[in-house]
Design brief:
By secondary structure, the protein is an all-alpha fold. It has twelve helices and no strands. The chain has one domain. It is 72% helix and 0% strand. Helix 2 runs parallel beside helix 5, helix 3 packs parallel to helix 7 and helix 10 packs antiparallel against helix 11. The longest helix has 24 residues. The protein is globular, with a radius of gyration of 19 Å. The relative contact order is 0.13.
Length: 235
C-alpha cells in the first residue's frame, strides 16, 4: 500500500487482526451479494460479479477517499479470491445457505459489523479526525450493500431498512472512542462489532425502525386522500 508522504508506512499498514476482519467482511458481504444474485436468477458470471461488488465496493470507496491508492481490493489478490470463493460456495451450496431465515440479511449484518470497525481504524491510521473516521467506517459498511441492491434493482437496504447505517455508525464510533481513550484496537473492534451486529440483529428480529414521515403517500392513498392537500388547486 502506498503511504501518504506525511505519514510513516507503519501507521497505515493494517494489522493482521484488522486484515482478517477486512477479508472476513469481504467474504460474508460477497455471500450476501451471491445470494441476491441467485434470488434474481442470474447466471454464474452474474453471481461472481455481484459477489465482488458487494464484498469490495465499500472498501474501495473508503480507500479512494483516504488516499490509499491503489485500493486494497484491487492490489491484493486475496480480496478477489475470497469474493470468487464466496460466489462459488453460494452457487454450489445455495440450498444449505437458504435454510437460514433471511440469509442475505444475516450475512449482510455480519459484513456490516466487520467493515464498520475496519473502516474506522484505517481512516484513523491515515490521519482523519474522529468524526470523519467514524463516518468512513459507516461508509465502508454500507457501500457494498448499496451497490448490490442497486444492481438487482432494489431500493438499498440503508434507505429502507431498520437501523442499518445507524448500526454501522455505532460500531465505528466505538472504535474511534477506543482509539481516543488509548484502548487496544482488538478490544475496541470486538466491542464495536458486537454492538453493530447486535443492533442489526435486534432490528431485524423485532423490526426496529427510525421514525418515518407521519403520513406517507401510501397511507394517504389508503385513507382516501391520494393527493397532497397542501398543494394549491390548479386553475
Amino acid at each position: 500500500m502506498d503511504c501518504p508522504a506525511s505519514l510513516p508506512c507503519a501507521m497505515v499498514q493494517l494489522s493482521t487482526f484488522a486484515r482478517v476482519l477486512d477479508l472476513g467482511g469481504t467474504f460474508v458481504f460477497a455471500i450476501s451479494g451471491a445470494v441476491a444474485a441467485v434470488n434474481r436468477r442470474l447466471d454464474l458470471f452474474g453471481i461472481l460479479v455481484l459477489s465482488f461488488v458487494a464484498g469490495n465496493v465499500g472498501g474501495i470507496t473508503r480507500d479512494v477517499l483516504i488516499g490509499a491508492i491503489p485500493p486494497a481490493a484491487l492490489s491484493d489478490a486475496w480480496y478477489l479470491l475470497v469474493s470468487i470463493a464466496a460466489g462459488l460456495i453460494t452457487y454450489f451450496s445455495y440450498a444449505g445457505i437458504d435454510r437460514l431465515r433471511n440469509p442475505m440479511l444475516w450475512f449482510d449484518a455480519v459484513g456490516l459489523a466487520f467493515f464498520a470497525v475496519v473502516g474506522a481504524e484505517k481512516a484513523l491510521a491515515f490521519g482523519l479526525n474522529p468524526v470523519m473516521s467514524a463516518l468512513l467506517g459507516m461508509l465502508t459498511g454500507i457501500g457494498g450493500g448499496m451497490m448490490r441492491d442497486v444492481l438487482v434493482n432494489e431500493v438499498p437496504q440503508v434507505l429502507r431498512s431498520d437501523l442499518y447505517a445507524v448500526a454501522a455508525l455505532a460500531g465505528a464510533s466505538i472504535v474511534v472512542g477506543g482509539h481516543w481513550l488509548g484502548i487496544s484496537y482488538r478490544t475496541s473492534a470486538i466491542c464495536g462489532g458486537i454492538v453493530c451486529f447486535g443492533l442489526r440483529f435486534m432490528a431485524i428480529r423485532y423490526a426496529w425502525n427510525l421514525p418515518t414521515a407521519a403520513l406517507s403517500a401510501r397511507q394517504r392513498a389508503r385513507e382516501g386522500h391520494p393527493h397532497d392537500e397542501s398543494r394549491p388547486p390548479r386553475d
